[in-house]
Design goal:
Blueprint (H helix, E strand, L loop, with lengths): L3 E6 L3 H10 L5 E7 L3 H11 L3 E3 L2 H5 L6 E4 L6 H10 L3 E4 L7 H6 L1
Parallel strand pairs: 1-2, 1-4, 2-3, 4-5
Length: 108
């Protein structure tokens, strides 16, 4: 089985649950986390075993070791975060709601 190397955007409660779930999924590996602050990313990476911690979401999207990205940022940021990750060539799993309106959904 091929390993899917995951990145996570955000360090809130829902992303903590995702990190815990990834730890028990065969073929999944958490390799990067991004936050709005480096300190939050560092703490999350230490708690959940991510090998890379970034103080920006863009750094996760641009990490060549990341195959797929889980977006768990605040809802108003979902569209821009998803588009950024897709443009970087990453597969995206976006926490609900994936967009806050039809215009954002069309952009995505």
């Amino acid at each position: 089985m091929e390993t899917v190397r995951w990145g996570i955007l955000g360090t809130g409660a829902i992303t903590k649950q995702m990190a815990e779930d990834l730890a028990v999924v065969e073929g999944a590996e958490l390799v990067a986390v991004g936050s709005r602050t480096q300190a939050s990313a560092d703490a999350f990476a230490a708690a959940y075993g991510a090998s890379n911690a970034y103080g920006s979401y863009e750094a996760v999207a641009n990490d060549p070791d990341v195959d797929a990205i889980y977006i768990g940022t605040p809802h108003p940021m979902h569209a821009d975060n998803a588009i950024m990750c897709l443009e970087a060539g990453k597969a995206v799993l976006c926490e609900k709601s994936f967009a806050v309106n039809a215009s954002q959904a069309r952009r995505m």
